Amino acid sequence: MSTPTDTLARTDTAVAVDDLTVRFSSKRGEVTALHDVGLQVGRGEFVSIVGPSGCGKSTLLKVVAGLTDPSGGSVELGGVAVRGPQRNIGYVFQRAALLEWRTVRKNILLQAEMRGLNKRAAEAECARLIEMTGLGGFENALPHELSGGMQQRVSLCRALLHEPEVLLMDEPFGALDALTRERMNIELHRIWRETGTTVLLVTHSVAEAVYLANRVVVMSPRPGRIVELLDVDLPAHREYATTMEQPEFIRVANRIRELLGSAPHTD
Prior knowledge:
By secondary structure, this protein is an alpha/beta fold. The chain has two domains: 13-88 and 167-262, 3-Layer(aba) Sandwich (Rossmann fold), CATH 3.40.50.300; 96-163, no CATH class. Helices cover 34% and strands 25% of the residues. The protein has eight helices and ten strands. It has a six-stranded mixed sheet, with helices on both faces. A four-stranded antiparallel sheet has the order 2-1-4-5, with helices on one face. The chain is globular and about 45 Å long. The N and C termini lie far apart (41 Å).
């Protein structure tokens, strides 16, 4: 459904961040949110980003999306420099941000209306996403009739409707209870395997970061820098409970906690 002008240039690198620095000015003075950040994300890769609160994780996503300008360095999507808001990304926030007067289906199709997508193709893709995310039977439900997890599924469908090559997710499950969050992790991992979309996920959950990702980026306190990039050598298909018991999962999780200054444990 993407138009030629929306499609990223065909390179093996979906996201390239080079010597990125972001500074903000306020009445209190200048604040450096990110400093000399460099990151290469391969096409179809799932990368989790963890770090202390206020270290610039969300700012990094906003720069990739073209919503925040860098003070120094550069960001490219598929080899094309990011200058201004990007059309060929999807963005999922912590809150679902659904329009209360629109049904599930119409909330998802809002993306098509805003982008001027072909109506028939968008409706077909909407139906496919609803089925894939287990929302079948709730197409005409209003947001207040849905659980928090179901609302986030609608938000995810909306972000995927235009088939973005890069999906940015900013702590999307942080407001959910533990069991719902676990189910959403399983669902997201399945959807990623099926779609092959490149994903950058910001999270405060070490377990979530390791379970979902190919690699985990660990950031320092502000000004945010990348302290370490950790490969996650786990099978593509991951059963939730058994994955948590794998030596590789424990190794990566404990290393993240060590870097963040917390005691190693696996729960």
